[in-house]
Structures are given as structure tokens and as C-alpha cells.
């Protein structure tokens, strides 16, 4: 699944020099759409808003 996502968004990679850096210019909704296409009914859970507890705590401190 990870490989398929990398292939899907290869042209939107953030770091084109070091391919081991796995960051892409995509929205959570775009990832969800790709996952639904690849996994279909087997997509169990997906959240467009990450918990990011530590990041949120740092924003209020």
C-alpha cells in the first residue's frame, strides 16, 4: 500500500533529490481517495485531522 501511494504521488514529492525523504504535496482528502481506490472496502479507518497531541499542546503553551 505504501509503495502504491508513493507511485501515485511521485510527481508531487517535496524532496526530489533524496527519494528516501517521504513527504508529498498532497491533502489528506487526496490520500483518502487514493486509499479508497486501492483498498476499497478494506479501508478500515482514516482521520483527516491527526491527533498531534504534542503539537497542539505546544501551540497553547
Put simply, the count of helices is 3
Query: How many domains?
Result: 1
Rg computed from alpha carbons, rounded to a whole number of angstroms? 14 Å
Biggest sheet record: none
Number of distinct beta strands: 0
Q: Give the rounded overall mean pLDDT.
A: 83
Overall geometric form: flat
Q: Which class do the helix and strand fractions yield?
A: mainly alpha
Strand content: under 5%
What is the H/E string?
HHH
> Which range best describes the helical content: under 10%, 10-25%, 25-40%, 40-55%, 55-70% or over 70%?
40-55%
Q: What is the end-to-end distance?
A: 37 Å
Spans with pLDDT under 50 lasting ≥5 residues?
none
What can you see in these coordinates?
The protein is mainly α. The N and C termini lie far apart (37 Å). The longest helix has 12 residues, at 28-39. It contains three helices and no strands. The mean pLDDT is 83. It has one domain.
Summarize the structure.
With 61 residues, the chain is an all-alpha fold. The protein is built from 3 helices and no strands.
Key traits:
single chain; 61 residues; mainly alpha; 3 helices
Show the helix and strand layout.
Layout lengths: L1 H7 L19 H12 L13 H8 L1
Amino acid at each position: 500500500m505504501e509503495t502504491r501511494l508513493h507511485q501515485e504521488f511521485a510527481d508531487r514529492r517535496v524532496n526530489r533529490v533524496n527519494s528516501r525523504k517521504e513527504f508529498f504535496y498532497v491533502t489528506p482528502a487526496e490520500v483518502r481517495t487514493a486509499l479508497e481506490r486501492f483498498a476499497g472496502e478494506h479501508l478500515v479507518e482514516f482521520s483527516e485531522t491527526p491527533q498531534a497531541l504534542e503539537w497542539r499542546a505546544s501551540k497553547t503553551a
